[in-house]
Amino acid sequence: MKNKKSPQDQTVDLEKMEQWLKDYFLDPLTSHYDHSQFRIDIYETDENWIVEGSLDEYASSEITVKMEKSQLIISAQKHDYSSPSPFPKKVRAINFPFPIINHCVRASFQHGVLEIFISKKIENGFGKDRFITLP
After folding, report:
1. In Å, what is the CA distance from 91 to each residue of 10, 17, 40, 103, 118?
2. pTM for this model (two decimals)
3. How many CA atoms are closer than 13 Å to the CA of 5, on its beta-carbon side?
4. Which residue has the higher pLDDT, 126 or 61?
5. pLDDT score, position 10
């Protein structure tokens, strides 16, 4: 009989993630989107990967964070009720090398900086596409 790991014991292949981070930041499109949409940085701690977005011209109610399988989608649009809106929607999508829907993900927004914390352990992640609520 094979021993199955419980979801709490599973982690992401860290070597694969390190290579993905290098490739992501060396991709010329990353720099292009940093200038044309909004800047994104990714940091690593012992417990989390932190996606940080610079959105100082937006209120938290104008930002949405959505997870779809392996993709994190951050969008921002100024509230304007005229049609068409003079403020274009800005979107960044990050395709991770693993399904982030299985991870615990939380977000905060303070002083124009969006921080999204993705747990390195596969735990408490509903396994479904979902929106992340900003406080």
Report:
1. 31, 23, 11, 22, 19
2. 0.81
3. 9
4. 61
5. 53
